[in-house]
# Entry
Amino acid sequence: MRRLTPYLLALPSWMWLAIFLVVPMVAMASVSLQTGNAIDGFAMTFSVSNYSDALGRYSTQLVRSLLYGGLATVAMLLIGYPVAYWIAFKGGRRKSMYLFLLLLPFFVSFVLRTISWNFLLSDNGILFGTLKDWGLLPADFHVLATTFAVVGGLTYNFLPFMILPIYVALERVDPRVVEAAQDLYATRAAAFRRVVLPLSLPGVFAGVLMTFVPTTADPINAQILGGTGNTMIGNIIQTEYLTNLNYPTASALSFTLMAVLLVGIFIYARALGTENVLEAAAR
Amino acid sequence: MRGIRTGDRLLHIYTWIVIVWLSSPIAVMILFGFNDKKSKSNTTWQGFTLRWYTELFDIPDLTVALRNSLVIALVTTVITVVIGTMLGLALGRHRFRGKGATNFLVFAAISTPELVMGASLLSLFVSGNVPRDANTIIVAHVLFSLSFVVVTVRARIVTLDPSLEEAAKDLGATAWGTFRQVTLPSIMPGVMAGAMLSFALSVDDYVVTSFVNGSTVTFPLWIVGAVKTGIPPQVNVMGTLIFGIGVLIAIANAVAARRRT
Amino acid sequence: MNPRLHLPRREAFRIAGLSAAGLALAACGVQGQKAAPPKADAVADFWSKQTKHGKLVFANWPEYMPEDKGPLEKFKSDTGIAYEYKEVIQENAEFFGKADPVLRAGQSLGYDIVVMTNGIQLQHMIELGYAVPLDHSKLPNFQANAGQKYKERAYDPGNKYTIPYTSGVTGIAYNTDHVKDDITSIESLFDPKYKGRVGMMADAQEIANFGMIALGIDPEKSTEADWKKAGEKLKAQRDAGLVRKYYDQGYIDAVSKGDVWLTMAWSGDVFQRQLAGEPVKFVVPEEGGTIWTDNMLIPKGAANPVDALMLMDYLYQPAVAAELDEFIQFVTPVPAVQDLLREKAKTAKGEDKKALEEMADSPLMFPGEADYAKLRSYTPLNNKQQQVFNPIFQSITQA
# Structure
């Protein structure tokens, strides 16, 4: 019985993932190699050209999405790390309160949040209108319908996913280790860089994983906050899937996107020097 | 020494700035729950009123949608926490065959864009003749929340000192007893974090839900549908109440934490 | 906890087996479903076998029915038919995307009436045989009260499968705080002096229509060469930095706030904002605009087609249509509504009176003959043409 324990524990999750993740993915892979259209039907032709066609047409949006996702991830790292640090080491008894407050806006629908941003960032609204009246901004300054708004929206919407894993990693660091490091090194910054930062890397990696993927694939922020030339690959996949009913192309694009993301993650893991990426990811 | 205290102070203030920044659109949302608007759109301020609070459930479909979201989120969280904790335990404590493959699956679940997940799930349900309703939504929500719970719980378990559990067993506790009285309390913070995350993800989800909901409407789905013609203030009020309850829980938690120590 | 979510081994194997079957299906390719149009006797045969069941499920767009469901309640008390009303349709594309796998598998959507806009997805529904042909002998109110134009829709000749629910006009909306001129021409959307302040619609059919109208081409009769020309004009507009964003529906907030100064817009949206006193004006360009129609149809596999047909016809009674239109504020297919609203205005008071009068007099809700003459439908497209049409315009809106 003892030896069976891990298998029994893992079984329900295995089943869930196998049935609802693996099977549909395999089916989708199959669709990505077919040709045809919604009316006349699809047939399996092993057409790898679906992939090359899709890449040819949409490489701009794919690269753009990686760029936006990358920028947002870096922004979230820079903004979120100090917060995770402070809560982990100085949050005291109120740690869970702070975490809860960070997550709280996300109990309210993202649509409401994004629409409220639309209102706040409006060209002549509360924020910019006032600044413009005071002459601090040129009259045709606008944030909405720009790349900045999209990346900003992505950063805003996924920040907790960066903060939480880093917090979890930092929280496990014994404060005495930090003290010892500060005694050893002349400056606090050095102590941080040499001791704390490396210890937090698994958390950083998890945070990057949980943010880079969804931000690169996100269609919503570009749709609501973006303007011309901000279309991301998520929007393209949505259009191919739902408007054009071009299932093979949509599936091919989806796999291409996932493949690119996985490659990116593995490269990053190598750079970090993590030996077993999968183990580290689950940390 | 002085430098350290200032640095801490700054970080403290910075953390609050970030929290406020994250909550700022919520402030707008709360404000417009008091807007005395006359037309269908709720984007210009037209006066203060409390009437939406009294007319909160005047839109039956909206009330149903909110209820659906809350129930689905609750069920999702329970399921995800149970099977996710189990898997986290297995991954963190035991060695078994297929561990690498399991890690990969968990990894894959996080890496799958929502759009892809939703579309592939819909095809599965259709070819399996499974009607799309609240149950299929729950299935989908558990699917994408699972990885988060597993990762969080596993991270916590890996840091636990196994000697405590061993001691319990030496003293004659059963496996279940050990779990309940030693392991579970130790991993509780991780489990709670996973539960909060799972609930938030479920209540907020749009993309995947829009594929597998059939005719069941959830809160985010209803709101997106109403964007075209103007979101009624009742939505703002509901959001305000959800947020308010959350704040109260946070405060209660902080008070209880102070008492605990 | 929901018992269905436990997976006893038997269930698990069954699902695994079905998934494998699904896989096999996917691997072999999905069968095409192009349906030949049904023969007349088949239609009559179908309807003769149907009876009234006393209930129905109506799937519609949001904000297309008054909150108190007045028309539906009246229907219930007059006919005894219980209704379920679900606002589950937000976009034609998305709705069709979800309905297609279900109908393709021969299953029922669970709806008896569905409302879709004329366009590509409605074409698909008809082409794929997903829409039940209507029995016009049971639609007397439609015959008597529908405007002539609504009986002659090019996308469904003879109203074989659909009858209109409401219509709308696509024209230009502009913010009067920022635009001091009177806009009359479609060329204003291409005017460099509004650089970065122009809104266009993301929908391929909408933007294609405007591109073609601006070149003097009739979209209803256009060819591939025409589409390419329109595409070039729209591309030039984009390259010149004129367009701030290609909108799905958010244009109305944007133009009300002044984030964009002029934009392609739907009449009803603008009317509602005008009623609220916001500084927006609507105009059908002199070169022409677009008229679209949201239509009721009975999807294949509907459980209660007779009841559905009865409701569809009921909504064409002028009094009921008036109550509907007063709320929706788009263009009703029943012309008699205009007079009814005027009469109601006479006995109303204060704000209600003012609102009703504005509605009855508004060319946005009741376009005049001159306006109608300028309005064009979307380009009719079959599946093959669609494969060519879409990329031309999507490459502009999604670049």
